Structure formats: structure tokens, C-alpha cells
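R.M. (postdoc): so does anyone remember the format we settled on? I'll just put the C-alpha cells first.
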């Protein structure tokens, strides 16, 4: 191992046990009792998961047991009759909540100078897992909404074509987003480890901007689709 490699290894080892970022002037790192928004994250996730799960269960029960009229938006998006898109959305939300809850133990809601470099690595891994979960969860959510439009608003043929185009565009976009995330960097751990050397990465900043723009535009487009039927 060369002298440069030895110095780099010492730098990494020191960073892993030290603060993930340098504190501001006059501030001292506090790994054990620093300010945290942990309780707010837990409260938020508990309220959201409980509310969404309750509403989805009520909807599926009403459509299946009372009205006896399940639609594609209620649970027929996937081929398997045993797993519905509503169930996948709930599972995605639960997985999302678990990742958020676990990430609280590794620095979520804390200043970077109040967590160690090792915790920062774990937090980044959890953030990466969150992104993968989010990609599929938002896909099934938006697809369910578009399928709901096809059933509830009884649109004209031209509008049905527009909705189908939006639906398949969303499916293709989020599948592409998944593969972009999987092959974002080589080696993969360069995504969460700032000390990995000899890496090749896509333009992560550009990917985030493109994804954000498409998500915002599609959100508004889905919001305004029913207006044309009024």
C-alpha cells in the first residue's frame, strides 16, 4: 500500500468515528444528546400510516362487500388476483415508514456534525432504499388515480386516450427511474459513501432535477384532468 493510500485510509477511519461534517464556529459536536426532530418524524409517520391504511381498508371493503363492484383502480392493476395495487401502496407506505423510523437512529433530524461518519453512511443507504421504495409506491398511487378517472368520470374517447397515454408514460418513467437509480454509480456504494474512489456516476444532480420537474408537472396534469369533464 502506497503512502497516499495509507493517508487516505487514516482519513477515512478518522471520519467514520468523527463528525460527518465540521460543526460551525463555536459549536461542539454532540453524538449522544444533540438536538433532534426524531419525535416529530415518528408522530408524522404514525398519523400518515394510520390515516391512509384506514381509508384504503374502508374503500376496499365498501367496494368489495357493500357495492360488490371492484374496479381496476381498486385492485386489478397487477396480474395476480391475490395482490392489489391498493395493498402494494399500503405495503410501500409501511416500508417507507419503517425506513424513516430506522433512519432516525442514524441521523435523520439531526445536524451532520452531531452524527458520526459511520452513521452518515448508514443513513445514506437508508435514503437510497427510500428512493427505490418511493419510485414504485408513487407509480402505483398515480396509476390508481388515473384508473379511477377512467371509471368515475366516464370521459370521452379522446380523454380516455389522454389518460391511457399518461398512465403508460408514468409506468415507463418510473421503471426508467428505477434502473437509473440501480445503475447510478459504479461501484454502487459510491452513491452513499463519499470516500469511494475511482467511481463513474451519472449526473445525479441532473437526474434529480429532471425527476422533480416531471413529478411536479405530472401531479398538476393529473389534478386538472377531471376539470375538462365539468
Amino acid at each position: 500500500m502506497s503512502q497516499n493510500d495509507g493517508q487516505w485510509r487514516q482519513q477515512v477511519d478518522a471520519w467514520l468515528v468523527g463528525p460527518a461534517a465540521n460543526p460551525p464556529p463555536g459549536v461542539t459536536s454532540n453524538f449522544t444528546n444533540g438536538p433532534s426532530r426524531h419525535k416529530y418524524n415518528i408522530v408524522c409517520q404514525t398519523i400518515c400510516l394510520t390515516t391512509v391504511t384506514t381509508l384504503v381498508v374502508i374503500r376496499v371493503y365498501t367496494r368489495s362487500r357493500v357495492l360488490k363492484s371492484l374496479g381496476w383502480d381498486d385492485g386489478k392493476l397487477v396480474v395476480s388476483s391475490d395482490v392489489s395495487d391498493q395493498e402494494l401502496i399500503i405495503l410501500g407506505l409501511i416500508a417507507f415508514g419503517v425506513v424513516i423510523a430506522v433512519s432516525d437512529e442514524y441521523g435523520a433530524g439531526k445536524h451532520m456534525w452531531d452524527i458520526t461518519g459511520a452513521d452518515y453512511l448508514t443513513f445514506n443507504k437508508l435514503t437510497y432504499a427510500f428512493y427505490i421504495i418511493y419510485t414504485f409506491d408513487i407509480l402505483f398511487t398515480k396509476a390508481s388515480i388515473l384508473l379511477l378517472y377512467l371509471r368515475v368520470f366516464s370521459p370521452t374517447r379522446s380523454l380516455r386516450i389522454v389518460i391511457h397515454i399518461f398512465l403508460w408514460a408514468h409506468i415507463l418513467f418510473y421503471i426508467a427511474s428505477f434502473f437509473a437509480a440501480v445503475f447510478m454509480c459504479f461501484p454502487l456504494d459510491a452513491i452513499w459513501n463519499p470516500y469511494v474512489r475511482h467511481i463513474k456516476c451519472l449526473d445525479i444532480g441532473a437526474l434529480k432535477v429532471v425527476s422533480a420537474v416531471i413529478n411536479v408537472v405530472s401531479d398538476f396534469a393529473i389534478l386538472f384532468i377531471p376539470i375538462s369533464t365539468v
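R.M.: ...and that's the designed sequence above, right after the C-alpha cells. Also worth knowing: The chain has seven helices and two strands. The helical segments are 3-17, 38-66, 72-75, 85-104, 117-152, 157-182, 204-224.
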